Amino acid sequence: MTDLATAETFLVTHARLLERRRLELLLGRADAAEGVIAALAGYRNPDGGYGWGLEPDLRAAGSQPAGAFQALTVLAELAELDSAAAPAAGELAGALCDWLGTIALDGGALPFALAGAEGPGTAPWWAGGDPTEPSLHITAGIVAYAQRVRAHAPALAGHSWLTRATDWCLEQVAAGERPAGGGYTLAFVLGLLDAVVDVRPSATAELERMAAFVPPSGALPVSGGVDDEQLRPLRISPEPGRPLRALMPADAIARDLAALAQEQQEDGGWTVDFPSSSPAGAIEWRGIATIEALTLLRANRSIEVP
Length: 306
Description:
By secondary structure, the chain is mostly helical. The protein contains 14 helices and two strands, in the order H-H-H-H-H-H-H-H-H-H-E-E-H-H-H-H.
């Protein structure tokens, strides 16, 4: 059985302020949304992007697509858990989309990383990104979470960069078979298609087509990761009741949910199955993993949160 009190002790002891504030949001405590927004602001740069290690394996201060991805995961969570905070989440997401528009390549696509990512504590995959090459991997991931914010903050729907980037991603998906780039790319494409089925008529058929590439195990191997590293079924399809969930192997989801509930460590936190590029990043990932585990368990009705 999941021990919420021990999980909170772990987060208070080890996690970043941002994850501690996210726990407050998950638990429905007073002023939690304001706390999340304030903590997230510490990673924001004057240009409107996010850096400063918001992506734990990219420690550089400058704004990066990876920082935008992490910021939008938090803003989507904020909009989904607190309807009163959805307009503020939408406003922040809109400002971030403004910045993304300034770094976008042809068609609204984003590069995997910008120049300046390299430095102490930064993983080689971020440091070696080509700022001139469009990446479906990072673009689909960012657009997916921006569209999740949009679902709760309709004013974001008309953002010019978000529209162009969504179009670009859908064109890339429609142009081929399984997207190149490994498990993360396919997972982000599935998340994007799932997020836009209400506004893009073509997304339903493409979602069905792409979901057919998920094996019966419900997990996707991560190319270039450690041995046996994979994206688990709940990472691919976190939300029950969504079109994507209906296309996932139900037994795989059930097994993953049961496993996740059993993976809480003695110190109260959860772990990740990939190495970090720094000691700070390693403990920060555990804080993120713990929040994500609690959120998944709550969303899938495996724990009751006050």
